[in-house]
Amino acid sequence: MGQQKNLDGYVGFASLPNQVYRKSVKRGFEFTLMVVGESGLGKSTLINSLFLTDLYSAEYPGPSHRIKKTVQVEQSKVLIKEGGVQLLLTIVDTPGFGDAVDNSNCWQPIIDHIDSKFEDYLNSESRVNRRQMPDSRIHCCLYFIAPSGHGLKPLDIEFMKRLHEKVNVIPLIAKADTLTPEECQQFKKQIMREIQEHKIKIYEFPETDDEEENRLVKKIKDKLPLAVVGSNTIIEVNGKRVRGRQYPWGVAEVENSDHCDFTILRDMLIRTHMQDLKDVTNNVHYENYRSRKLAAVTYNGVDNNKAKGQLSTKSPLAQMEEERREHVTKMKKMEMEMEQVFEMKVKEKVQKLKDSEAELQRRHEQMKKNLEAQHKELEEKRRVFEDERSNWELQQRLEQQKMEASRTLEKNKKKGKIF
Amino acid sequence: MAATDVDVFSNEEKRNLSLGGHVGFDSLPDQLVSKSVTQGFCFNILCVGETGIGKSTLMNTLFNTMFENEEASHYQNGVYLRPRTYDLQESNVHLKLTIVDTVGFGDQINKEDSYKPIVDYIDTQFENYLQEELKIKRSLFNYHDTRIHICLYFIAPTGHSLKSLDLVTMKKLDSKVNIIPIIAKADTISKSELHKFKIKIMSELVSNGVQIYQFPTDDEAVSEINASMNAHLPFAVVGSVEEVKVGNKTVRARQYPWGVVQVENESHCDFVKLREMLIRVNMEDLREQTHARHYELYRRCKLEEMGFKDTDPDSQPFSLQETYEAKRKEFLGDLQRKEEEMRQMFVNKVKETEAELKEKERELHEKFEQLKRMHQDEKRKVEEKRKELEDEMNAFNRRKVACETLSSQPLKKDKDKKN
């Protein structure tokens, strides 16, 4: 879209990244991490190990220590600083998950929680007066898989299937120090196979233009799901102080990449991909939630577009505008149709009336003619009659006269006047 | 955009924890920066000033490149805005720069409406962004942001004061965009005149309540330099793309018979200060202010215009869903009402026409009833006449018969007499 221009000298906008850096440090960062798994899988320990802090301690016990009957969703917020960077970290626990005898729908409170965070964000984003928009959306969900060595449990599959389109799911093999490297390999292969089989979309590392980075990403991908070990205790090994688990047969070191994938998880989650987890949550999961929510509001039961499987790219208001215009067209058409029907009916009726009138007129004409004919006939008859009568009368008179004349003659004869 | 990371540390229930080692989230700003660099930056400058005041030259000088610009004539009918987008790169930073020129500004005889196309352009860019933000399916993260981040207002170097056009225009723009006033072609003003000029301009701006952009002083890293620069406003700049040899260096300058005005010499003009502030120090802040202040103000006004509120009459906060649902209900109710109205209108029309036609029918029948009655009368008359005639005929016949009998008798008498 823009023209490429070459600069003839140093301008200075190469400092933009520094400006962005400064501003972001001043603002501070937020991150919300959710941990899900059955009790006793070492979730709290892992969190403590990841953030090198006693998030869960005797004072603030971890989820497993709180015996719950139903699945709860709890938040702990901590503010941690490092190198001038402030991070507000929220850990969302789900105590009780998978612990009941009947675990049907135990994922529901979790889904509800994720949705309610999306809802909060959507509402604050949609306010007229927007001030601070705190982002409490879940950026990442660490799912702990029990180290059975065999495969995923039905609950694992159910959970991941239901949540993979709502949150970035990173499956972890918990307490990996109970598996030998070979068992671990097998287990990982089996899990990934099952994940693919069920079309579960776990968090994907983004492709970059950087060759080096891509190689690192590929190395991580080959080790998925990451097998982790956590520890709250520091042990001395060969003069070094490391976090680890002391066994009679040796020490399983948390940060030893030969022992487990903890460092990979930490580097990926915190040091390289934390921002990307937030971006994917914002650009993909949240947008999905938002468009589904707004489409529901807009269509309110009208299934036309849903049936087409497409979501409108317009805003709900623009959608209403379009619907309004459609309605106007529909109304115009309806009006035209009704007008037509009306005209037709009127025409019919008028025609009928005309016909009726014509008929009556005809009959009237007919009767008139009849009457006239009768009149004429009568007149003719009268004329004939009168003619006849006057003729007869004339004749009578003539005869009378004749008779008078003859009688007079007779009389005169009698009188002898005639010789 | 980074609007989601906001300083919310003040009102949260959280614990401050110390870390037992290097966790690694101090790389978060780097992660953010690397993501921004990959995405690329975009920056939009609006240059407002009379024709020939040196806008294009200054842009060329600032960005060390020859942007295409035909010289505008003084005979434009009105003011129109000409945006041009360029792709620039400096080290690994990509910048999509849009320069918007106001062509024809200050040339008309009647300049009352000169500010309107400018305000309209700024509002249109806000509107486009708002529309994208309101869409159901939106892609904000790769949206080409065309909102104006900075307006450089070029003041003519009269040496006296601001023109009324300047005050009117800046007043109309100050709530919509970051304004940095600059004195153009500053090489026509002497140092002492310049000092007085600057003071006059700033006091006029203050007394007229024009809000110009203040370089931010809340970040310790840049507060000092920003504060000192604030005191040098408005910047008196000279632009030039021609190179002149001065001493043993070749610098950008303007050659006069009496000397050489060096663009990058801070004792000659404030060009370097402008470049520092605009590009090297505060570019990101300008973008942020545009988004967080000017855009939010526009958005708030627009949404209020459309009837959106944050709280209902009982001061309960509306959720987005409720708001949209309410609007939709209203909208559907409206459509339904319109439909009803139309139907009702037709029903009335039909009733009216029916009544009319019935009336006509009735009239027709009446007419024919009347005719029928007339006809009956006529018929009766004819009958009477016929009866009359018949009577006469009968009477005549009787006479005839009587006469005949009578006439035959006298003959007999005569005959008798003779005998």
UniProtKB/TrEMBL annotation, chain A:
InterPro entries reported for this sequence: G_SEPTIN_dom, P-loop_NTPase, Septin, Septin7
Give a GO biological-process term.
Answer: cell division
Q: Which GO terms describe its cellular component?
A: axoneme; cleavage furrow; kinetochore; midbody; septin complex; spindle
The Swiss-Prot or TrEMBL record annotates one GO molecular function as: GTP binding
Pfam families, per database record: Septin (PF00735)
Name the species this protein comes from: Poecilia latipinna
Can the keyword Secreted be found in this entry's annotation?
no
Coiled-coil region(s): 317-415
Keywords, ordered alphabetically: Cell cycle, Cell division, Cell projection, Centromere, Chromosome, Cilium, Coiled coil, Cytoplasm, Cytoskeleton, GTP-binding, Kinetochore, Mitosis, Nucleotide-binding
> Domain Septin-type G spans what residues?
27-296
Its protein name is: Septin
From TrEMBL, chain B:
Q: Which family does it belong to?
A: Belongs to the TRAFAC class TrmE-Era-EngA-EngB-Septin-like GTPase superfamily. Septin GTPase family.
Q: Where is this region: Disordered?
A: 374-419
Which PROSITE patterns did the record assign? G_SEPTIN
Composition bias type Basic and acidic residues, residue spans = 374-389
Q: What is the superkingdom listed in this entry's lineage? A: Eukaryota
List the InterPro entries. G_SEPTIN_dom, P-loop_NTPase, Septin
Q: Please provide the record's keywords in A-Z order.
A: GTP-binding, Nucleotide-binding
**What name is this protein filed under?**
Septin
Q: Name one Pfam family in it.
A: Septin
For this protein, the record's Gene3D superfamilies field holds: P-loop containing nucleotide triphosphate hydrolases (3.40.50.300)
What are this entry's molecular-function GO terms?
Answer: GTP binding
